[in-house]
């Protein structure tokens, strides 16, 4: 019995030590990632999006471009079977689907609370302040680390984010967003260009003539 208790005790200490080490390493990665993006004023990238729709048991893939500029500006453009343009100018979020001849309009603050997973990339959120972070594996070649971020508030309505971080430079090279309905959106960034001096005009949007503009209800 004493040997069992000793073995159990050693095992418990080992598990605790590994958990502490994991937490310390995660904190170090978070610090490096935050510092990297604190020093990033804007960036552009090619993006591949894979959306796994649970209710349809189907994965939809699209490609396009993305641009971010602090504070609160972004522009996504997808030009394939279902073209989409998503623009945030720091005040308003616009979501335009040409085939539907509709533009959805919402206040930026309502769409991007600090606990919204994509908020970090817009410069709104702070990782350590807004999320509980754990290391969640690495790529087969060891070049990417995976960070799982769980919002500290509003968990039921936001979802969970897993970031793909380059081990050497602490750059974000991808993200996976899991929503409460079981849908998974995977983003992969390629050809990332940092601090290129993007003009504010790139993040302006004017609804084309003849399209319906639908505003989000007040308070939602």
Features:
disordered N terminus; 12-stranded mixed β-sheet; 220 residues; 22% helix; globular; 12 strands
Description:
- The protein is of the alpha+beta class.
- The chain is 22% helix and 42% strand.
- It has four helices and twelve strands, in the order αββββββααββαββββ.
- It has helices at 2-38, 108-111, 127-130, 155-158, and strands at residues 42-53, 58-69, 73-78, 84-89, 92-97, 102-107, 131-138, 144-151, 160-166, 172-178, 184-194, 212-215.
- Strands 7-8-9-10-11-1-2-3-4-5-6-12 form a twelve-stranded mixed beta sheet.
- It is globular, with a radius of gyration of 20 Å.
- Mean pLDDT is 78; it is low at 1-24.
Q: Rg from C-alpha positions?
A: 20 Å
| Residues in helix, % | 10-25%
Net shape: globular
Question: How would you classify the helix and strand content by structural class?
Answer: alpha+beta
**What's the SSE pattern?**
HEEEEEEHHEEHEEEE
The overall strand count is 12
CATH topology name, in short, is outer membrane lipoprotein receptor (LolB), chain A
- Mean residue pLDDT: 78
Task: Report low-confidence residues grouped into runs of 5 or more.
Answer: 1-24
Q: What would CATH call the class?
A: Mainly Beta
User: For the terminal residues, how far apart are their CA atoms?
Assistant: 60 Å
Sheet-strand content, in percent, reads: 35-45%
What's the name of the CATH homologous superfamily?
A: Lipoprotein localisation LolA/LolB/LppX
What can be said about the biggest beta sheet?
12 strands, mixed
User: How many discrete structural domains?
Assistant: 1
If strands are numbered along the chain, what order do they take across the biggest sheet? 7-8-9-10-11-1-2-3-4-5-6-12
CATH-defined architecture: Clam
Tally of contiguous helical segments: 4
């Amino acid at each position: 019995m004493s040997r069992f208790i000793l073995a159990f005790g050693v095992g418990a200490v080992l598990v605790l030590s590994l958990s502490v080490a994991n937490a310390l390493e995660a904190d170090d990665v978070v610090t490096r990632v935050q510092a990297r993006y604190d020093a990033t004023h804007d960036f552009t990238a090619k993006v591949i999006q894979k959306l796994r729709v649970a209710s349809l048991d189907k994965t939809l893939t699209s490609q396009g471009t993305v641009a971010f500029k602090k504070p609160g500006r972004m522009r996504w453009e997808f030009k394939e079977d279902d073209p989409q343009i998503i623009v945030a100018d720091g005040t308003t979020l616009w979501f335009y689907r040409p085939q539907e001849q509709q533009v959805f309009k919402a206040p930026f603050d309502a769409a991007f609370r600090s606990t919204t997973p994509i908020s970090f990339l817009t410069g709104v959120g702070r990782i350590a302040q807004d999320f509980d972070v754990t290391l969640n594996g690495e790529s087969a070649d060891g070049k990417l680390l995976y960070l799982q971020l769980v919002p500290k508030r509003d968990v039921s309505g936001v979802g969970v984010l897993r970031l793909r971080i380059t081990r050497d430079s602490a750059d974000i090279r991808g993200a996976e967003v899991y929503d409460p309905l079981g849908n998974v959106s995977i983003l992969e960034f390629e050809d990332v260009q940092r601090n290129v001096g993007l003009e504010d005009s790139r993040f302006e949007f004017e609804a084309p003539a003849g399209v319906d503009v639908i505003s989000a209800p007040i308070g939602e």
